[in-house]
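Q: What residues go here?
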């Protein structure tokens, strides 16, 4: 499966070869509105910093609890956005658990 970013790069390449955007989008099976779309999201540096602080202060909390703490702090945030940022940050922050030893349970 080819990602949208790869398809956009292919459209840009075809445009350099003097093929119109409309025609190149038809060839690659990509909607022109998708090709022209630009992300307008603000950077998440301050937001990520707050989530990191909460994650280190409360290592057992998941993204829903972190969202509740942010909301309680007076910040208006989307739960899915918190989940997305937590997925990228908290997984890096938390220490991996050691697997339980199987031999201890077998000896009984």
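A:
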């Amino acid at each position: 499966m080819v990602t949208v970013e790869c398809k956009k790069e292919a459209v840009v390449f075809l445009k350099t070869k003097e093929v119109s955007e409309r025609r190149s989008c038809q060839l690659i099976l990509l909607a022109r509105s998708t090709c022209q779309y630009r992300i307008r999201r603000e950077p998440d540096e301050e937001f990520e910093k707050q989530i990191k602080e909460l994650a280190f202060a409360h290592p057992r909390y998941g993204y829903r609890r972190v969202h509740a703490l942010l909301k309680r702090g007076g910040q208006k945030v989307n739960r899915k956005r918190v989940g997305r940022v937590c997925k990228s940050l908290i997984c890096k922050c938390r220490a991996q658990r050691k697997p339980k030893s199987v031999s201890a349970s077998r000896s009984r």
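A: Context that may help when evaluating the design: The radius of gyration is 22 Å. Residues 41 and 50 are 18 Å apart (CA to CA).
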